[in-house]
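If your schedule permits, I should be very grateful for your opinion on a structural question. I have a record of one protein: its chain in single-letter code and its fold written as C-alpha coordinates. Kindly check, if you would, that the fold set down in the C-alpha coordinates agrees with what the sequence suggests. I remain grateful for any guidance, and I place the record below:

***
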Amino acid sequence: MPKNYQSYSKDELVRELNKLKKQKKYGLVWEDKPEDVVEQCKTKLPVLNYTHEKKIDVIYIDPPYNTGAKDWKYNNDYVDSEDPYRHSKWLSLMEKRLKIAKKLLNKNGVLICTIDENEFARLGLILEEIYPAYQITCVTIIHNPAGVQGKNFSYVHEYAYFVYPKNGNYIGKTTRQEDLVSPLRDWGTISKREQAKNCFYPIFIKDNKITGFGDVCADKYHPKKSNIILDDGSISIYPIDKHDIERKWVFSRNSVEKIIDQLFIKKISGEHVVMRRKQEASYKTVWDDKRYYANIYGSKLLNNLINIKFPFPKSLYAGDIIKSCGWIKMSVS
Protein backbone atom coordinates (compact mmCIF):
# COMPACT_ATOMS: atom_id res chain seq x y z
CA MET A 1 0.00 0.00 0.00
CA PRO A 2 1.50 3.44 -0.96
CA LYS A 3 2.79 5.52 1.91
CA ASN A 4 0.95 8.75 2.76
CA TYR A 5 3.90 11.09 3.22
CA GLN A 6 1.58 14.08 3.79
CA SER A 7 0.73 12.72 7.23
CA TYR A 8 4.43 12.33 8.21
CA SER A 9 6.06 14.64 10.71
CA LYS A 10 9.32 16.36 9.82
CA ASP A 11 11.36 13.83 11.84
CA GLU A 12 9.56 10.92 10.17
CA LEU A 13 10.23 12.38 6.73
CA VAL A 14 13.94 12.77 7.55
CA ARG A 15 14.15 9.16 8.74
CA GLU A 16 12.36 7.98 5.59
CA LEU A 17 14.69 10.03 3.40
CA ASN A 18 17.74 8.50 5.09
CA LYS A 19 16.34 5.04 4.41
CA LEU A 20 15.83 5.87 0.75
CA LYS A 21 19.39 7.17 0.45
CA LYS A 22 20.69 3.75 1.46
CA GLN A 23 18.65 1.95 -1.18
CA LYS A 24 19.78 1.39 -4.76
CA LYS A 25 18.75 4.34 -6.87
CA TYR A 26 18.65 2.40 -10.15
CA GLY A 27 19.68 -0.91 -11.66
CA LEU A 28 19.06 -4.25 -10.01
CA VAL A 29 17.39 -5.40 -6.83
CA TRP A 30 17.62 -9.09 -5.99
CA GLU A 31 17.36 -11.66 -3.25
CA ASP A 32 20.49 -11.42 -1.11
CA LYS A 33 20.71 -14.81 0.56
CA PRO A 34 24.07 -15.88 2.06
CA GLU A 35 25.74 -18.90 0.52
CA ASP A 36 27.95 -21.53 2.09
CA VAL A 37 30.98 -20.54 0.02
CA VAL A 38 30.87 -16.94 1.16
CA GLU A 39 30.40 -17.82 4.83
CA GLN A 40 33.27 -20.30 4.64
CA CYS A 41 35.53 -17.67 3.12
CA LYS A 42 34.92 -15.51 6.19
CA THR A 43 35.91 -18.16 8.73
CA LYS A 44 37.22 -21.46 7.43
CA LEU A 45 38.86 -20.46 4.14
CA PRO A 46 40.40 -17.00 4.65
CA VAL A 47 43.80 -17.88 3.17
CA LEU A 48 43.23 -16.60 -0.38
CA ASN A 49 41.73 -13.32 0.82
CA TYR A 50 44.75 -12.62 3.05
CA THR A 51 47.61 -13.98 0.95
CA HIS A 52 46.41 -12.74 -2.43
CA GLU A 53 44.45 -9.59 -1.68
CA LYS A 54 45.18 -7.07 -4.47
CA LYS A 55 47.81 -9.40 -5.97
CA ILE A 56 45.97 -11.11 -8.85
CA ASP A 57 46.62 -9.92 -12.41
CA VAL A 58 43.71 -11.59 -14.20
CA ILE A 59 40.56 -13.33 -13.02
CA TYR A 60 38.59 -15.25 -15.64
CA ILE A 61 35.24 -16.70 -14.57
CA ASP A 62 32.82 -18.81 -16.56
CA PRO A 63 29.70 -18.95 -14.35
CA PRO A 64 26.48 -20.91 -14.98
CA TYR A 65 24.72 -19.26 -17.89
CA ASN A 66 21.31 -19.76 -16.26
CA THR A 67 19.76 -21.10 -19.45
CA GLY A 68 16.76 -22.50 -17.62
CA ALA A 69 18.07 -26.05 -17.73
CA LYS A 70 18.32 -27.79 -14.36
CA ASP A 71 22.11 -27.74 -14.38
CA TRP A 72 23.22 -25.59 -11.43
CA LYS A 73 22.52 -25.31 -7.73
CA TYR A 74 21.92 -22.38 -5.43
CA ASN A 75 21.92 -23.10 -1.69
CA ASN A 76 21.78 -26.83 -2.44
CA ASP A 77 18.64 -26.49 -4.59
CA TYR A 78 18.61 -26.89 -8.37
CA VAL A 79 17.46 -23.81 -10.26
CA ASP A 80 15.45 -24.33 -13.44
CA SER A 81 13.20 -22.34 -15.78
CA GLU A 82 10.18 -22.88 -13.53
CA ASP A 83 11.81 -21.11 -10.60
CA PRO A 84 10.27 -17.61 -10.43
CA TYR A 85 13.39 -16.32 -8.64
CA ARG A 86 16.01 -17.90 -10.90
CA HIS A 87 17.35 -14.54 -12.12
CA SER A 88 17.39 -13.19 -8.57
CA LYS A 89 19.26 -16.25 -7.31
CA TRP A 90 21.76 -15.98 -10.16
CA LEU A 91 22.41 -12.32 -9.36
CA SER A 92 22.92 -13.12 -5.68
CA LEU A 93 25.39 -15.85 -6.59
CA MET A 94 27.29 -13.52 -8.94
CA GLU A 95 27.36 -10.50 -6.63
CA LYS A 96 29.29 -12.33 -3.93
CA ARG A 97 31.84 -13.77 -6.33
CA LEU A 98 32.36 -10.50 -8.14
CA LYS A 99 32.96 -8.65 -4.87
CA ILE A 100 35.51 -11.26 -3.78
CA ALA A 101 37.19 -10.98 -7.19
CA LYS A 102 37.43 -7.20 -6.80
CA LYS A 103 39.30 -7.59 -3.50
CA LEU A 104 41.82 -9.94 -5.12
CA LEU A 105 42.60 -7.86 -8.22
CA ASN A 106 45.65 -5.63 -8.10
CA LYS A 107 45.47 -2.00 -9.23
CA ASN A 108 46.11 -3.03 -12.85
CA GLY A 109 44.05 -6.21 -12.66
CA VAL A 110 41.55 -7.36 -15.29
CA LEU A 111 38.35 -9.31 -14.67
CA ILE A 112 36.87 -11.35 -17.52
CA CYS A 113 33.48 -13.03 -17.36
CA THR A 114 31.85 -15.07 -20.14
CA ILE A 115 28.08 -15.29 -20.48
CA ASP A 116 25.32 -15.79 -23.06
CA GLU A 117 22.06 -14.03 -23.88
CA ASN A 118 20.19 -15.39 -20.83
CA GLU A 119 21.98 -13.17 -18.30
CA PHE A 120 23.96 -10.88 -20.60
CA ALA A 121 22.02 -7.69 -19.74
CA ARG A 122 21.85 -8.33 -15.99
CA LEU A 123 25.56 -9.14 -15.81
CA GLY A 124 26.37 -5.83 -17.46
CA LEU A 125 24.34 -3.93 -14.86
CA ILE A 126 25.81 -5.72 -11.87
CA LEU A 127 29.35 -5.17 -13.18
CA GLU A 128 28.65 -1.44 -13.52
CA GLU A 129 27.39 -1.38 -9.95
CA ILE A 130 30.31 -3.27 -8.38
CA TYR A 131 33.06 -1.82 -10.61
CA PRO A 132 31.96 1.83 -11.12
CA ALA A 133 35.53 3.14 -11.58
CA TYR A 134 36.43 0.59 -14.27
CA GLN A 135 36.08 0.44 -18.03
CA ILE A 136 33.70 -2.34 -19.09
CA THR A 137 33.84 -3.70 -22.64
CA CYS A 138 31.65 -6.49 -23.95
CA VAL A 139 33.17 -8.70 -26.66
CA THR A 140 31.05 -10.93 -28.90
CA ILE A 141 32.58 -14.35 -29.67
CA ILE A 142 31.22 -16.45 -32.55
CA HIS A 143 31.58 -19.93 -31.07
CA ASN A 144 28.84 -21.86 -32.88
CA PRO A 145 28.33 -20.77 -36.51
CA ALA A 146 25.70 -23.49 -37.02
CA GLY A 147 23.63 -21.77 -34.36
CA VAL A 148 21.42 -22.90 -31.49
CA GLN A 149 17.80 -22.38 -32.49
CA GLY A 150 15.82 -20.16 -30.15
CA LYS A 151 12.13 -19.31 -30.53
CA ASN A 152 12.92 -16.60 -33.06
CA PHE A 153 16.67 -16.40 -33.66
CA SER A 154 19.47 -18.90 -34.06
CA TYR A 155 22.18 -17.98 -31.55
CA VAL A 156 25.74 -18.27 -32.87
CA HIS A 157 27.64 -16.35 -30.21
CA GLU A 158 28.32 -15.74 -26.56
CA TYR A 159 29.85 -12.78 -24.75
CA ALA A 160 32.94 -11.95 -22.72
CA TYR A 161 32.88 -8.92 -20.44
CA PHE A 162 36.30 -7.31 -19.90
CA VAL A 163 36.55 -5.13 -16.77
CA TYR A 164 39.77 -3.10 -16.45
CA PRO A 165 41.04 0.27 -15.12
CA LYS A 166 39.97 3.26 -17.17
CA ASN A 167 43.44 4.77 -17.67
CA GLY A 168 46.27 2.86 -19.34
CA ASN A 169 46.84 0.04 -21.80
CA TYR A 170 45.59 -3.27 -20.42
CA ILE A 171 44.54 -5.09 -23.58
CA GLY A 172 47.42 -6.18 -25.82
CA LYS A 173 47.69 -6.86 -29.54
CA THR A 174 46.76 -9.86 -31.63
CA THR A 175 48.47 -11.25 -34.76
CA ARG A 176 46.80 -10.43 -38.06
CA GLN A 177 45.84 -13.30 -40.35
CA GLU A 178 47.44 -11.29 -43.16
CA ASP A 179 50.02 -8.52 -42.80
CA LEU A 180 48.73 -5.01 -43.43
CA VAL A 181 51.13 -3.23 -45.80
CA SER A 182 50.77 0.50 -46.48
CA PRO A 183 52.94 3.57 -47.18
CA LEU A 184 54.29 5.42 -44.14
CA ARG A 185 53.43 8.69 -45.88
CA ASP A 186 50.02 9.92 -44.78
CA TRP A 187 47.25 10.67 -47.23
CA GLY A 188 43.73 12.08 -47.25
CA THR A 189 42.21 15.34 -46.09
CA ILE A 190 44.32 15.74 -42.91
CA SER A 191 47.66 14.58 -44.27
CA LYS A 192 49.36 17.86 -45.21
CA ARG A 193 52.62 19.03 -43.63
CA GLU A 194 51.13 22.03 -41.81
CA GLN A 195 48.69 19.80 -39.95
CA ALA A 196 51.50 18.07 -38.01
CA LYS A 197 54.86 19.82 -38.40
CA ASN A 198 56.73 17.28 -36.28
CA CYS A 199 55.80 14.61 -38.83
CA PHE A 200 57.84 16.21 -41.63
CA TYR A 201 61.46 15.01 -41.59
CA PRO A 202 63.82 12.98 -43.82
CA ILE A 203 64.29 9.24 -43.63
CA PHE A 204 67.74 8.14 -44.79
CA ILE A 205 68.32 4.95 -46.78
CA LYS A 206 71.28 3.28 -48.41
CA ASP A 207 71.30 0.09 -50.48
CA ASN A 208 67.51 -0.06 -50.02
CA LYS A 209 67.79 -0.15 -46.22
CA ILE A 210 66.85 2.48 -43.65
CA THR A 211 69.94 3.91 -41.95
CA GLY A 212 68.44 6.67 -39.83
CA PHE A 213 66.02 9.56 -39.36
CA GLY A 214 66.73 13.27 -39.71
CA ASP A 215 65.49 16.16 -37.56
CA VAL A 216 62.12 17.83 -38.09
CA CYS A 217 62.53 20.26 -40.98
CA ALA A 218 62.44 24.01 -40.40
CA ASP A 219 59.28 25.72 -41.63
CA LYS A 220 61.23 27.56 -44.32
CA TYR A 221 62.80 24.42 -45.75
CA HIS A 222 60.95 22.92 -48.72
CA PRO A 223 62.55 19.92 -50.49
CA LYS A 224 62.05 19.97 -54.23
CA LYS A 225 61.16 16.29 -54.43
CA SER A 226 60.62 13.23 -52.26
CA ASN A 227 63.93 11.48 -53.09
CA ILE A 228 67.14 13.50 -52.77
CA ILE A 229 70.48 11.78 -53.43
CA LEU A 230 73.22 12.77 -50.98
CA ASP A 231 76.99 13.01 -51.57
CA ASP A 232 77.73 9.63 -49.97
CA GLY A 233 75.24 7.86 -52.23
CA SER A 234 72.53 7.57 -49.60
CA ILE A 235 69.06 8.94 -50.21
CA SER A 236 66.88 11.15 -48.01
CA ILE A 237 63.17 10.50 -48.42
CA TYR A 238 60.56 13.14 -47.59
CA PRO A 239 56.77 12.65 -47.39
CA ILE A 240 56.05 14.39 -50.69
CA ASP A 241 53.49 12.88 -53.05
CA LYS A 242 53.66 12.46 -56.82
CA HIS A 243 52.01 15.89 -57.29
CA ASP A 244 54.82 17.53 -55.25
CA ILE A 245 52.45 18.25 -52.35
CA GLU A 246 54.16 18.19 -48.95
CA ARG A 247 52.42 15.59 -46.81
CA LYS A 248 53.47 14.13 -43.44
CA TRP A 249 54.59 10.79 -42.13
CA VAL A 250 52.04 8.80 -40.11
CA PHE A 251 54.46 8.84 -37.14
CA SER A 252 56.11 11.86 -35.56
CA ARG A 253 59.90 12.13 -35.32
CA ASN A 254 59.74 11.32 -31.61
CA SER A 255 57.94 8.00 -32.14
CA VAL A 256 59.01 6.66 -35.53
CA GLU A 257 62.10 4.85 -34.23
CA LYS A 258 59.86 2.62 -32.12
CA ILE A 259 58.48 1.01 -35.29
CA ILE A 260 61.66 0.84 -37.36
CA ASP A 261 61.44 -2.97 -37.46
CA GLN A 262 58.10 -2.61 -39.28
CA LEU A 263 59.51 -0.38 -42.03
CA PHE A 264 60.99 -1.35 -45.38
CA ILE A 265 61.72 0.29 -48.73
CA LYS A 266 59.88 -0.40 -51.96
CA LYS A 267 60.59 1.11 -55.35
CA ILE A 268 57.42 2.35 -57.05
CA SER A 269 57.52 4.04 -60.47
CA GLY A 270 61.24 4.70 -60.07
CA GLU A 271 60.82 6.30 -56.62
CA HIS A 272 61.92 4.90 -53.25
CA VAL A 273 58.90 4.70 -50.95
CA VAL A 274 58.90 3.98 -47.22
CA MET A 275 56.43 1.20 -46.45
CA ARG A 276 55.10 -0.21 -43.19
CA ARG A 277 54.21 -3.84 -42.55
CA LYS A 278 51.88 -4.34 -39.57
CA GLN A 279 51.64 -7.87 -38.20
CA GLU A 280 49.80 -6.89 -35.03
CA ALA A 281 46.37 -5.37 -34.55
CA SER A 282 44.15 -4.29 -31.71
CA TYR A 283 41.62 -6.84 -30.55
CA LYS A 284 38.18 -6.19 -32.01
CA THR A 285 34.89 -6.32 -30.15
CA VAL A 286 33.70 -9.18 -32.37
CA TRP A 287 35.82 -12.37 -32.49
CA ASP A 288 34.80 -14.39 -35.53
CA ASP A 289 37.93 -16.46 -36.16
CA LYS A 290 37.23 -20.15 -36.85
CA ARG A 291 39.57 -21.03 -33.98
CA TYR A 292 36.80 -20.15 -31.53
CA TYR A 293 34.33 -22.72 -32.92
CA ALA A 294 33.51 -24.85 -29.89
CA ASN A 295 32.37 -27.86 -31.90
CA ILE A 296 35.55 -28.24 -33.97
CA TYR A 297 38.16 -27.14 -31.46
CA GLY A 298 36.26 -28.19 -28.34
CA SER A 299 33.89 -31.15 -28.58
CA LYS A 300 35.56 -33.00 -31.46
CA LEU A 301 39.00 -32.44 -30.01
CA LEU A 302 37.98 -33.88 -26.64
CA ASN A 303 36.18 -36.82 -28.25
CA ASN A 304 39.47 -37.83 -29.86
CA LEU A 305 41.24 -37.75 -26.48
CA ILE A 306 38.76 -39.15 -23.95
CA ASN A 307 35.67 -41.33 -23.98
CA ILE A 308 33.80 -39.22 -21.43
CA LYS A 309 31.18 -36.82 -22.76
CA PHE A 310 32.19 -33.35 -21.54
CA PRO A 311 29.29 -30.83 -21.46
CA PHE A 312 29.67 -27.57 -23.38
CA PRO A 313 33.47 -27.50 -23.88
CA LYS A 314 34.96 -24.27 -25.15
CA SER A 315 37.44 -24.03 -27.97
CA LEU A 316 41.05 -24.76 -27.11
CA TYR A 317 41.76 -21.24 -28.37
CA ALA A 318 39.38 -19.62 -25.89
CA GLY A 319 42.59 -19.06 -23.96
CA ASP A 320 43.03 -15.97 -26.14
CA ILE A 321 40.69 -14.31 -23.64
CA ILE A 322 43.49 -14.34 -21.07
CA LYS A 323 46.24 -13.89 -23.65
CA SER A 324 44.62 -10.61 -24.71
CA CYS A 325 45.63 -8.96 -21.43
CA GLY A 326 48.79 -7.49 -22.92
CA TRP A 327 50.15 -5.60 -19.90
CA ILE A 328 50.86 -8.93 -18.16
CA LYS A 329 53.30 -9.96 -20.87
CA MET A 330 55.04 -6.61 -20.59
CA SER A 331 55.41 -6.90 -16.82
CA VAL A 332 56.95 -10.36 -17.13
CA SER A 333 59.41 -9.50 -19.89
